[in-house]
Design goal:
mainly alpha; Growth Hormone, Chain: A; 3 domains; globular
Length: about 450
């Protein structure tokens, strides 16, 4: 007798039962991952031009970036719970279309308040995209190919983060600040066409639960408190006390109906350590990238173009190793591949600690390529670990925890680097101390991954 599929209201987080591999949807997930991470970085480069064009202060212009990042981070976990209850196709088409529409609204902004409102709204749909991307890749292929599929968004996302300054510089020089909001539209359109044609027509949409806003406020408040404390700490260490309210806010959220299911998923899947390793590697990479850019642009006096070309060595190594990492995960195992990637990344960052003025751009680029290769080996297998261990029907919740960890790592990295610069002059001692701290942060991912799966499940 043929086994029946369990009844469900959606197809988003059910394991695929058809022996069909929809690689076009995996490509769409990678494209959206690239766009989402590109957006988080390309706008930062345009803040000076934006402030001048809209006649506002630098502090007000900064909200063009913060207005996107804060709702994105705050809504990742509530979005994961909502997406466990709706259909893939409907959610993707809604999120991508609204994300693109918000980009157009931001580009047309006649004044700062319009721009900030558009960016806040875009951050809401950005959170949905961040959760959907790994889930879409995981459910579009058979389980034995999941490591290869997960390497696509896991590689293209950080690639968008690193290439953001390069793309932004070219657009600003030739078209002005409004163009940085429009560059994403062709990719969004292509993703919509792919999803519309190839995604299964199962499941619909429903309104989020009313408690989701309270969950978002608690998580957003905790994240804002930590980031604000770390950002202001270099001027006075006492500012770190601002981070203390994050603890009761998180504890309060864990006691709410929105927080308990997330904690239960992490406990059932035993992936807390894997999520922590994602945060550690992202923070180490972001901190090192920030300090190297300051070193190249400051004491060395490199041009923006030369600096961008040097930093491109990291995503180049990541892309080349990403496909290898996916294949190794499918044949060798996700955990040993992810662990190997964490070790390689740590070694690459450690080799950059003694960076000095006598180093050539090639010396830095080679070491960055090694660190990037490690991240490429690690990204896809790590995602596969989480998705494989997630309980049935909870892939979106598990994926949202990974994306929150990665987003926090990218946000905490520069703050970590700035705090480390207190050890001395940023051009010399501060840079060395900051990269050493970034290496230590990345190195913590090694034991976290090594210990994963050692204890048998109940």
């Amino acid at each position: 007798m043929r086994a029946q599929r369990p009844s469900a209201t959606n197809d988003l987080t059910d394991h695929q039962v058809e022996p069909v591999d929809r690689w076009s949807l995996v490509v769409a997930a990678g494209m959206l991952s690239f766009v989402a991470m590109l957006d988080m970085n390309v706008v930062n480069l345009a803040l000076t031009d934006l402030a001048s064009g809209l006649h506002v202060s630098a502090g007000v212009a900064q909200w063009a970036a913060l207005g996107y990042q804060l709702p994105l981070v705050a809504l990742l976990l509530p979005a994961g719970r909502w997406l466990d209850q709706v259909g893939t196709r409907s959610a993707l088409l809604l999120a991508v279309s609204c994300f693109a529409a918000c980009s157009v609204l931001a580009a047309l902004a006649p004044w700062a308040s319009w721009l900030i409102a558009a960016r806040l709204l875009q951050g809401v749909f950005g959170a949905v995209l961040f959760v959907l991307m790994p889930v879409l890749a995981a459910t579009s292929v058979r389980p034995e190919l999941r490591g290869r599929a997960m390497s696509v968004p896991a590689t293209l996302g950080p690639l968008g983060a690193v290439t953001g300054p390069v793309v932004g510089g070219l657009l600003l020089d030739h078209f002005g600040w409004r163009a940085v909001f429009l560059v994403k539209l062709p990719v969004c359109l292509a993703a919509v066409l792919i999803v519309h044609r190839h995604a299964p027509r199962r499941g619909g949409l429903r309104l989020p639960e009313r408690g989701s806003l309270g969950d978002a406020a608690l998580i957003g408040g905790a994240v804002a408190a930590v980031l604000l404390g770390l950002t202001l700490a270099p001027t006075a260490p006492a500012w770190l006390l601002l981070a203390l309210p994050a603890v009761p806010l998180v504890l309060r959220w864990l006691r709410r109906p929105g927080g308990r299911p997330v904690a239960e998923v992490l406990r059932a899947a035993r992936t807390t350590g894997v999520n922590a390793s994602v945060l550690a590697l992202a923070a180490g990479f972001a901190a090192c990238q920030y300090l190297l850019v300051q070193q190249l642009r400051g004491p060395r006096g490199e041009s923006a173009t030369a600096t961008a070309l040097t930093m491109l060595a990291f995503p180049l190594g990541m892309v080349l190793a990403g496909r290898v990492g996916g294949r190794l995960a499918d044949h060798w195992g996700a955990r040993p591949t992810a662990l190997t990637g964490a070790v390689v990344t740590t070694c690459g960052l450690a080799s950059l600690i003694p960076v000095g003025g006598d180093w050539s751009a090639l010396d830095i680029a080679v070491r960055l390529a090694v660190a990037g290769a490690g991240m490429g080996l690690n990204g896809g297998p790590t995602q596969a670990l989480v998705m494989t261990a997630a309980p049935p029907g909870k892939l979106a919740t598990a994926g949202s925890a990974v994306q929150l960890s990665r987003s926090l790592g990218f946000a905490l990295g520069p703050a970590l680097a700035t705090a480390a610069a207190l050890a001395g002059d940023r051009a010399t001692t501060g840079t060395h101390a900051g990269i050493a701290l970034a290496t230590v942060a990345a190195a913590t991912a090694v034991p976290l991954l090594a210990l994963h799966g050692r204890r048998p499940r109940a």
